[in-house]
Amino acid sequence: MDVILLQLLNGLDKGGAYALIALGLTLIFGTLGVVNFAHGALFMLGAFCAVTFNKLLSLEVVTTDPTQTTAWGSPMEIRTPYVEAFLGDFGTWMLNYSVPMSILLAIPVMLLVGFIMERGLIKHFYKRAHADQILVTFGLAIVLQEVIKAIYGANPIPQPAPELVRGAADIGAAFGFDPGVIVYPYWRMVYLAFAGLVIGAVFAFLQFTTFGMVVRAGMADRDTVGLLGINIERRFTVVFAIAAVVAGLAGVMYTPILPPDYHMGMDFLVLSFVVVVVGGMGSLPGAVLAGFLLGILQSFASMNEVKAILPGIDQIIIYLVAVVILLVRPRGLMGRKGVMES
Amino acid sequence: MSLIRKPLNRRSILRAGAMGGAALATPTIFTSGAWSAGYLNEPTGAEVVLGFNVPQTGAYADEGADELRAYQLAVKHLNGEGDGGLLNTFSSKVLQGGVNGKKVAYVTGDTQTKSDAARASAKRMIEKDGAVMITGGSSSGVAIAVQSLCQEAGVIFMAGLTHSNDTTGKDKRKNGFRHFFNTEMSGAALAPVLKNNYGTDRKAYHLTADYTWGWSQEESIKKYTEDMGWETTAAVRTPLGAGDFSQYITPVLNSGADVLVLNHYGKDMVNSLTQAVQFGLRDKQVDGKDFVIVVPLYSRLMAQGAGENVKGIFGSTNWHWSLQDEGSKAFVKSFGQEYGFPPSQAAHTCYVQTLLYADAAQRAGTFDPCAIAAALEGFEFDGMGNGPTLYRADDHQCFKDVLVVKGKENPTSQFDLLEVVEVTPRSQVEYPAEMLGGELGTCNNGA
Hints:
The complex is a heterodimer. Chain A is mainly alpha-helical. Helix content of chain A is 68%, strand content 7%. Chain A has a two-stranded antiparallel sheet with strand order 1-2. Chain B is of the alpha/beta class. Chain B contains 14 helices and 17 strands. Chain B has helices at 10-25, 28-31, 61-78, 115-127, 140-153, 183-198, 212-227, 246-253, 267-278, 300-306, 326-339, 345-364, 369-376, 426-429, and strands at residues 47-54, 103-110, 133-136, 156-159, 176-178, 203-209, 231-238, 259-263, 285-286, 289-290, 292-297, 314-317, 380-381, 389-391, 398-399, 402-407, 418-424. A 7-stranded mixed sheet of chain B has the order 7-6-8-11-12-16-17, sandwiched between helices. A 5-stranded parallel sheet of chain B has the order 2-1-3-4-5, with helices on both faces. A 3-stranded antiparallel sheet of chain B has the order 13-14-15, with no helix packed on it. In chain B, helix 6 (183-198) packs across helix 7 (212-227). Classes of the chains: A mainly alpha, B alpha/beta.
């Protein structure tokens, strides 16, 4: 029982990341009809917003201590971050909370990136075949990750969570299990709550605002909305930028869980596409549902008890489930008729 | 007069195209005169070309960059430039600027940490650039693949960072040599330290990278820890580059194990260790004992990636820049002055391998790979940072002291992350050559 609970929790936070990326992918596909293979790169760019913010805060005053030398004979450097030198304890607090604070940087940066991507490149491929869209966005993803590697190197760069949420909670003890058996990192709980909040905000935005109503109408029938004199293209550009922000924020908050490196976007991209297909192309609730479902299934498939019966199942479970669901429900769990069927 | 005597037609174009294609497709190895002398790529000019095959892109690009820095420094020192580095402390004194009267030049290749790409770049350096020796690494899978290619081609392969037993075990080759230690030595060095610190009544849970190095590391650590009384609760294989290891870590919590052995390297090690710490494993107690984590193979670059999570965690390493012998001090000084930071263990082994190759060539008086192999076999040397060292003739594995290190509790700089807790003497990590299987075969000089 304790093992099942643990894997369920594990699956939830992983599912949260899948759901956030898949949500953005679906938004873009549902509005613009573009299959965006650069979406994983947006997740990675978001993570590197956190790295950049931390590096900015960590810019150091470098002084040398002539009384000490390094092993290679140079004077020893003493480094103190500017924020600590100038702001004292508040500077230390800022460094401690650099990951959540970097959201402030990530939102405008990702909005801008999304806007430039859509206006500068993607819009030229609206009327092209999906294969062309895949090629160009995949190429863009490779360019973005190589740029990040050139700037930050290939090694993962750790981003610690704030000290307050650095440990793990003994959840099991609160429910009568043995102590230390069901423990769960605080930050993963924060991530899960954050994913829920962002998903809720996106749905609320689409459901309860005029802008959202127009976007939903455009998703259902773009031509009719255009005939009503509404510039739907401009709204879809904003949607693309919002999808970029969602992916970016997912990346920012994931950095304490997975030290970011240039390749992290690719690692999530393929799985997120499977999530979109399983959820149903163009279906936002489907993307969220499939994200959590596949995250949980992947966790369960990694259990030693399961792998003892089906060796290697943890590597193929997601694809296996995708095959089964597409056989039983060709449009995915919540796919709409007519999407990708023409 | 017309310049075109015969009118161009489809047939003549096809014929010319076929002839041109055949000429271009002929491997340059047949046409470049590479085999015209007594051995492949015998240098005839004023220079001898070495091939540095390192990961310049991909997951190990940072490690590869450090290796390349070390190779470039070694070439500089071999050509009599700079402060001479380890040539000043090396016990053999035959190198006096250049090798066999030739200036050392080099070409580089990008392995991308992929066996096929590494073989392609090594092949290119041998066939197109005339490299007489290939060196490099950062992955055992890559090193074994390139070693095999060098054997077939007829050049020497001086392995860089490769830690699997197989490199000088079941996959050893007469043309291949390794200075770096292996998983067998890691186990032999690490086990006594683990016993002293954690006792003999422990239950270990292994998470293992699912490829040749991971299997080799798991087998060695299991063998030595079980011999001292530890029980292996489970050994779980994890896919290379899994990213999120949480689903593999959570079963550890209720497995009854009180030790987690992470047979991971590079990015996998950074991620699995970070996540194991997040799941509170270091704060956990099992039957009154503190839960502990062990990382059998450490590198400083990895330790930087894992940050403060490495504090207090034991592992082994081939060399560390904080060593205080004359050789290590000379190398750190030379490298630090050149690049502004201390070298990694990967940089050290690559630098040393280049010098050892050059020294063997100088002693042999030729670049013939078989003569160089003979000069390296059974060669005993000192002054390279690991104490007295033997290049064992039976398997081409170097035997030297092995370091057991621990993540430092209070680092004084971004490079000061590991502290050496024990220098395990060479005698303690030696083993019979036949134990790891394999056959060296015969030397191939490409003639």
